[in-house]
Design brief:
The protein is of the alpha+beta class. It has helices at 3-17, 23-50, and strands spanning 57-62, 71-76. It has one domain (3-76). Helix 1 (3-17) runs antiparallel to helix 2. The protein is elongated and about 55 Å long.
Length: 79
């Protein structure tokens, strides 16, 4: 989970316990945290692909890991 979301849930819980917010507001906060946590990654992937943000990226093949699986990483080329 995103650290921002965890902080929002903690603060919302404190507000509920202290009586500063009601059940409806707390439920709304929980739904928004879940929604933004699930929707943000695919949305960012879509937007980054449209803007060509990956245009300057290259891959580097890494040596096999202990488990024998091959891995690669992304990095920005220096221009």
């Amino acid at each position: 989970m995103v650290p921002r979301a965890e902080v929002a849930l903690i603060i919302a819980d404190l507000g509920l316990v202290e009586g500063l917010i009601g059940q409806e507001v707390f439920a709304t906060i929980v739904v928004m945290v879940i929604f933004t946590t699930l929707v943000t990654p695919p949305m960012l992937r879509t937007l980054s692909a449209q803007d060509g943000m990956r245009q300057g990226l290259s891959t580097v093949e890494l040596p096999p890991t202990i488990s024998g699986e091959e891995e690669s990483i992304w990095y920005f080329k220096a221009r």
